[in-house]
Amino acid sequence: MEKVWVFYGKTEGLTGRAEAKGEKGRLETRAGRVLLAHALKKLYGLSVPDGEEGAAQLEKMLAKGENGKPYLHGYPEIHFNISHSGAYAVCALAGIPVGIDIQIRQPVRGKRLLERTMNALEQEVIQKAKDPEMAFAFFWARKESYLKWSGEGITRDLSKLSMEDAVMEEIPVEEGYVCQVCTAVPFSFEKIELPLQL
Description:
Layout: E1 2-10, H1 11-15, H2 24-44, H3 51-61, E2 62-64, E3 70-72, E4 79-85, E5 88-94, E6 99-104, H4 111-117, H5 120-128, H6 132-150, E7 167-170, E8 177-183, E9 187-193
Parallel strand pairs: 1-9
Antiparallel strand pairs: 1-5, 2-3, 4-5, 6-8, 7-8
Helix pairs in contact: 2-3, 5-6
């Protein structure tokens, strides 16, 4: 059985600083890179410095595929994917293509969004759920992890998205969050929180 490693942590703890006005996207991206640098060092023995220095070095190693999916230039055997939402960043690594997405529970922005992104059954489940916001986050994270796994990105009608060719697993991170991992085959996972608690 294939194995997926999921590294995760709070953005502020990974970057060593609180979010400043206008810095949200940069800090989230940096947090994802810090997770990836740590994972590459731990799992593959790559010489990547810890923290911010490692994240900066990593930028030079990254390239993008046809639809923008990042990969490590020169390391075709290493597959990874990064996501962030709310206070958390997550990074999945595997020996096979992998997608990951994390979503924080938040209000659904109207019926039109539901209709554009969810099929009729998903819409019904969300509307009847005890917690519609978490139900929406669940389906959205599944769809996004699938599209990130396939390398497509959001390039087609999400309400018609079929994910029958994929295997997905929900990874517990924190209450109020949904995290989904997607691959082509059944997998086990190991979760590692950073920064490491001593």
